[in-house]
Amino acid sequence: MEIFEEGHPICDEKPGGPQPPASHHAAEVPRQRAECATERYGLLLIPGKNVGGPPLSNEASDMVRIDLTRALFEELQAKIEFIHNAADLISQMQDDCIRAFQKAMPSCQDWTPLFPFEVLLDLFARTTAQILYGEELAGRDDWLVHTIYPFIHHLMLAPPAVVSGYHPSLRFLAKYFETHTKMVYKGRKQAEDILRPILDKYKMQRAMPGEKNGHGDGIRWLLERYDSLGKELTPELLAQDLLFITVAAIQTSAAVGCSILFDMMDQPASLSHIRAEISAIKEACRGNWNRQSLAQLRFLDSFMKESKRVNTFTQGTCSFLITMVFDRFGSRVTVTVQRMVVVPYRFDDGLQIPAGTQLSFPNQQLNLDDDVYPDAGAFKADRFLKKRMEDDPNRHHFASVSEDSITWGSGYHACPGRFLAQDTLKLLFIYLLDEFEFKHVKDGQTRPKDMYHGFAVGPDITMPILSRRRGLERSR
Ligand code: HEM
């Protein structure tokens, strides 16, 4: 069925989720036993406890995986079931996206230099703020601009400062002396203070029958999750969960968006095709985007996925020593699906691995393997569009996870926010490409080389580009 076709989590994966692409298929270890593994290795983009990085809780992960995804698909489901007046999340996001552009995008009356990563970070954060933090917080600069952004900034700078400046046995002291680490702890406290009265309001509303409107938001969903487990959601836990999700969501999405934009700039023919597709679907939906119309942007979707394949983004981490050696000798190994075996495990073919073994799967190498993707080195914008037509329309879209596509991870812990990332990035591109044009600072310049760090790789976010509002040339 057409509306069921694209990006539906039910169609997307087989029950139990896809397995890691290896000859040895490890079944996921039971969830409660896997927890300690995922805390250390599941999402290593959040640096560890010595710098005050918020840990991942099951409640936070499930909130994104279940409640947020359900809200995203509610509108689509309602169409299938002919239910009217369903909460329309994409339409709310579209309004937020328009407001985000007014706040975060320079007016660009002439060619204006900007850092695409920074602009996309701000746009993404503002477009998703209402979903993640609710209406009241979303509009407050003391939250987004003065708490969240500095928190992310210091959280990224703290680990190298602590690792290079402190002997492992003394790292617990960093929170008293190291500047960025102190700021991370301060940021958590600041978030807690802002959240305290807001959480009280949610708790009061919870007690009033009939007070719940709309699809909800991150705070309400978290409160309901903690309630259902008989646990008390304190301001401290709320701050920890929201900060974790924020760091997992915003930086990654901005980096991937920046990488896709670089590829679009290098491929004018594809860019024209994408613009034409946006304009045709926009006309059909009269500019009121919903999940179905976003899903009809098939060429854009294919381009985004091909961009993520050829220019892999991954945040795999490794020890300081390995990072130093890799960075020194320019090694190009990037990994994802980082796990630690918590109980001895025997694969189907007899291979046995002891508890404590660390596993991860090569990401870029898989993406650039000619046996997996014929002519893998070539950027073919319609590669995944053709695969969908020839193979299966329900697979091969940007947010899909499969044996041959593990940039979102794999199995139970595969990124639960990927549908939100997919839809938000599409909304941002609709406005960016419709209203602005882009070029490199120097003539003849192309996509800057990606930056490797340890097991991670991503676009060069230090590279400025020029942007100008479209149509100005004609109107002069
Ligand atoms: C383009 C943007 C994004 C990329 C590339 C990305 C990538 C990833 C990857 C590779 C993982 C680890 C998966 C695994 O180990 O199997 C992950 C986990 C996670 N991501 Fe994302 N992510 C993105 C956006 C988001 C967004 C928007 C959210 C929240 C709204 C989010 C929330 C999470 C959470 C909570 C986890 C931990 C899941 C768990 O361990 O159970 N991510 N992400």
TrEMBL record:
GO molecular function, one term: heme binding
Heme among keywords: yes
Segments for region (Disordered): 1-28
Binding-site residues, heme: 415
Family to which the UniProt record says this protein belongs: Belongs to the cytochrome P450 family.
Cofactors (names): heme
Protein name: Cytochrome P450
Keywords assigned: Heme, Iron, Metal-binding, Monooxygenase, Oxidoreductase
Compositional bias per record (Basic and acidic residues), positions renumbered to this chain: 1-15
SUPFAM superfamilies named among the record's database cross-references: Cytochrome P450 (SSF48264)
